[in-house]
Amino acid sequence: MSVAKPKGPRPTVPTARPERPTKLLERSWPWIVVAGIIVGGVFALGTSMLRSAHEAGGNSDDAFFAIVLVGVIAVTLMAVVGFYSARKRRRGLQEHLPGTMMTWLKGHVWLGLAALFAVLVHAWLYPITFEISTGKITLAILLVLVLSGIAWRIVYETVPKRVAERVGNLSIKDTRSRLEQTQVEIEKATAGGSDELRNLVALLLAGKTRVPELDHRALMLPIEEQGTWEELKRLAERRERYGDRGPKQERYHRLLQRWKVVHLPLAVILGAALAIHIGDVLGLKQKVAASETDAFPDSSACAGCHTDIVEEWRLAMHAIAQTNPTVVAQTALALERYPEFGQVCTNCHSPIGTQVAPGATYPLPGQEGGGQILSDGVTCWTCHALPEQPAEISGAAADFPVNRAGTRSFGFVFAPPVEGDFPLPVPDHQVDVGFMMDEIETYQLCGACHNVKVDLGGDGFSVLGDDVSEGSREDQDGDGQLNENELQFVDDNGNGIADLEPGSVELDVDGTDRLLDLVLQTTFDEWEDFRESDQFRGETCGTCHLPSLGQGPTVDRAPGGLALPDRPLHSHEFVGVDYSLEPGHYTALGVGGEDATSHVLSARDALIAQAAGIAPEVIRVNANQLLMEVTVRSGFVGHDFPTGFAFARQWWLEVSAETVSGDPVCLLPVNPGTGQVDPTNGIASPCSSGTVETPQTDLRTCDPRQVAAEFGDELRARGIEPRNATTVLTAPAPLSDCDPWLTNFQKILTDGDPEGTGQFVEVAYQSLLPDIVKLQTRVADQQPMRTLKAYDDPTTEVDDRELTFGYAFDTRAVRGQDVVVTVRFHLRHLPPYFLRALDGFYPGGLTSDALLPQMVISTFAVAETEPARVPVA
Q: How far is CA 132 from CA 139, 140, 267, in A?
């Protein structure tokens, strides 16, 4: 009897293939050596070139060349690396290019890492910044590309081993072919069989019935089908194995191919990003679509390297010179009344923004979404891109003479002479000194805006208010003022010195004579006069307003591992008497994102503490009254006290008295006509002078017109014309409830009497008229509140640096007790009534009600008299 041969494929015995020896360049270590040589060479080349640029005085062009050269090397390496993909996919390249695919793969991996390192060196040669740029985007894409490539190689090293253990191979096509072949063999073996055999096979392939049960049923098959059943079970098992292998193969195949889906598109994206980055570096955008906005770097462009300085500047009023609500409102109000002002205000408050988008009011045309430079006020570029010293008051004119930036770099940036090491070599800009040869020359640029004078009369002085005639830098009349800084009444003889009209008084303190010109601010003139005095010891604008911070770096990071050079540091907060009242303005501007309000106010307090001092002294005391005087003397200032727009700032004395046991001692009524205490015919005084309930409460200034009406005859009998008798104050207090002893250095901004009515009305806007600023008058003794000089005028008998004010207290109720007088010197940078007068002109729906809660009163000087014993009788 012959034995039936089992149906189905016979197992094949694999034969061993001879192994091909691995070639040198198919190994990793030669490529590691090559990559290491490239990396070392690129690093040495880049750093040596950067140091050479440093030793050449921080040459920006040399630094740019070093960065570009390393970048070119990196791009070349990336191109070579990318050629692997082209060779892999094109048969023609495979046939004609030397080396095996494994050789090219090794080069692709290790030269790719060398290219990445070259890119990192390229970035390292430029100071690292944190703002988004095309370079950082390109680097990020490259890093993801490299990481995806590394992940791909890791997967290809690990997955095939797991495939061999769990699946066998990754040939899905072979598995499908074997599965089909097995199915054909099952069908052949079943063909011609009994119905029971076919039923058993169907149940076996369905997998729903257990094999032992099927075996039990198979015992009933004819003897010749018993062997076929055993063969069919083996084929079914093979079929199941091939069926399970397919999904696993597909899963591993997707795992291997997934990285290709990431890696290859990223390579294409990287190429596009590189092209954009190169175009950006070369300034192609500016060349193709140049705009005025691109010509002026804004503060954010400087913040990339000078973070601390820009953060300081953001606290300054300079930063909001055109967005501060009071500036916006006052400019709009002034232009509504006098359109002929034109851009005088906006030119100084936004000297660069008005060159991009000329406008007379804020916001400038196109400011919203038009670039940061249109929102910056007096920004970094305003001062540090001036190749030549600006003329005095030139800020009020259009086209402030700042440099335009180039398409590739900012060009030249000017700063005071550096000390010690050379400037760092960066491609952004070249550092030069220009006119900033020393402290005096540097701060000449402040005169561009911190004089506000307009020659209305055309009397021989310059159009913008400064005399430029021969000898203007001299002081021909010896009064301590340079010829060019004399207040301009008339200059009939053309000698550069203002001739005062008969009877006129300098600063027009009595209101009878009128200046022929508009004079709002003379701060820079005052410093020039102080500079020529014998009291000058080298103080500049920066001494107080940009105080020294010691030594330290002015940039965040140095390129290429160079050391950060120490420089003299100065605070760029430009601390002054003003601060922003806009709600939330200082939120997140402080250290660590905190509110900077307290910091700004503390710096302000430190500044004004130097401005002036007070010295109270009891002159005489008896059983009925205590007479005392307060001497106010200018302090460490390089200009008049007060200065600037003094009509918008209140500097006043609060004077109060009490016994040592705490009982109040009140001021006596005073008669302005006689200048004497007069309980029966005087103006009743509050218990203390200069006291306000809240920072939002106005001072109780006596109405000067009522004073003139009630006490004018007595004054004229003494040969004194009532002061400010024609001045209409915005918020006067009636004589029945005012403060006659009030000592307030605030000046008065008037409308200039445009209708010639003889009355000057206090307003919250500037008029294009002469003689609109009046001096405040102290009602009690009709003493004009003249400014205090920083130096003593040699032609006057009094010391021009100080003024003395008298007070009289009622001591009848405190006889036999010791009395102490306390004097406080206060500052409020805007009177509440001034803010209320601008309602309707504030931007963004703001009102004075929103601004006033931020108002503070700063007390910068406090002094007490020695206890004075009041006699019993």
A: 11, 11, 21
One-letter amino acid at 90 equals: R
174 φ/ψ angles, rounded to the nearest 5 degrees = -65, -40
CA distance 224 to 626: 142
pLDDT in tens, 215-224: 778 778 888 7
* Whether the predicted model's global pTM rises above the 0.85 cut: no
Closest CA to 315 of 584, 602, 574, 577: 574
The structure tokens listed for 852 are 């006033």
- Estimate to the nearest angstrom the gap between the alpha carbon of 565 and the chain centroid: 23
Distance CA 369, CA 293 (A): 11
Cα–Cα separations (whole angstroms), residue 806 to 619, 671, 798, 861: 9, 13, 17, 18
319 vs 600: CA distance, rounded Å:
13
Residue 273 host element (H or E): helix 223-281
Which residues have a Cβ under 8 Å from the Cβ of 769 and sit 6 or more positions away? 456, 518, 751, 752, 753, 754
Q: What is the 3-state secondary structure (H, E, C) of 194-216?
A: CHHHHHHHHHHHHCCCCHHHHHH
> Model confidence over 448-483: pLDDT tens digits?
999 998 877 665 444 444 444 445 667 766 777 776
On whether the CB atoms of residues 733 and 701 are closer than 8 A, the answer is yes
Q: What is the pLDDT of residue 332?
A: 95
Cis amide leading into 832 (omega within 30): no
Closest CA to 243 of 182, 198, 202, 161: 182
Neighbour count for residue 350 (Cβ, 10 Å)? 31
Q: Return the biggest CA–CA distance within the chain.
A: 162
CA dist., res. 412 & res. 59, Å (int): 11
Sign of the torsion angle spanned by Cα atoms 785, 790, 796, 798: positive
Candidates 245, 306, 854, 858; CA nearest to 596 is 854
Q: How far apart are CA 69 and CA 113, in angstroms?
A: 18
Are the CB atoms for 262 and 270 separated by under 8 Å?
A: no
Number of neighbours of residue 208 by Cβ within 10 angstroms: 7
Contact 765, 327 (CB under 8 A): no
- Total Cβ atoms within 10 A of residue 197: 20
User: Could you tell me which of 450, 509, 490, 528 has the C-alpha nearest to residue 773?
Assistant: 509
Half-sphere CA count of 157, side-chain side, radius 13 A: 6
Interatomic CA distance for residues 585 and 323, integer angstroms: 11
pLDDT average, residue stretch 641-666:
96
Exposure string for 712-738, b = 16+ CB within 10 A, e = fewer: bebbeeeeeebbbbbbbbbbbbebeeb
- Write out the DSSP string of 161-175: HHHHHHTS---HHHH
Contact present, 563 and 824 (Cβ < 8 Å): no
Question: Does 642 sit behind a cis peptide bond, omega within 30 degrees of 0 on the bond before it?
Answer: yes
pLDDT tens-digit profile of 249-302? 666 566 566 666 677 788 888 889 999 898 888 887 777 766 778 888 999 989
Q: Cα–Cα–Cα angle for 323, 329, 334, nearest 5°?
A: 120
Q: In which residue are the tokens 């500049």 written?
A: 540
How does DSSP classify residue 23?
P
Euclidean distance between CA atoms 372 and 357, whole angstroms: 12
Residue 799 has a CB neighbour count (10 Å cut-off) of 15
Q: Which residue has the tokens 């001494």?
A: 543
